[in-house]
Amino acid sequence: MKTVHNEILKNNRSFHKFRLPLREIIYFIEMTETKKNVITVDYKLFKDTKDGKMIESTEGKEPLVFMSGVGQMIPDFEKNVADLNVGDTFSFPVKAENAYGVRNEEAIIELPKDMFMQDGKLVAEVVVGNILPLQDQSGNVHPAKVVSINDETITMDVNHPLAGQDLYFTGTVVEKREATAEELEHGHAHGAGGHQH
Ligand SMILES: [Zn+2]
Hints:
This protein is α+β, with helices and mostly antiparallel strands. It contains four helices and eleven strands.
């Protein structure tokens, strides 16, 4: 049963959208219930392979705290880290399509130049190659790269900066505990590194 289910997980990342036999669904619920831990990790993130350029690191900073089993992390990250114990190390690749997705050419958009003007002048940060925060109608901020400055418009690339990028993670589990009832209810970790409220 477990093997069968793991195969389903491995082959269908969006497996929950498929209609599974009832006993599989029950098994899945039980499995996720037991997997909700609050896990603290130190990690490094590289481009392509572990010899690639380092993109992020918690070295000298606060470690990363996340709750497993709630879809907070990239599924491949969770798959490789959630079952480890304190002191265990990890080292694994994640393909672009399983990380921040492939690049989408439709995410290259032209916006009116007015949006980037202040006091009749182009804002100083609008330079080709710069990443600027763009806010959508719902108030969410997306990092967007300036592609070109045109007569009437600015061409922006709103693909995630890591879209199309294969990734490689290494790191260590520094803390692991069961999520509290309150954390389970909220769906996120509390305390140091988590939500403070
Ligand atoms: Zn909370």
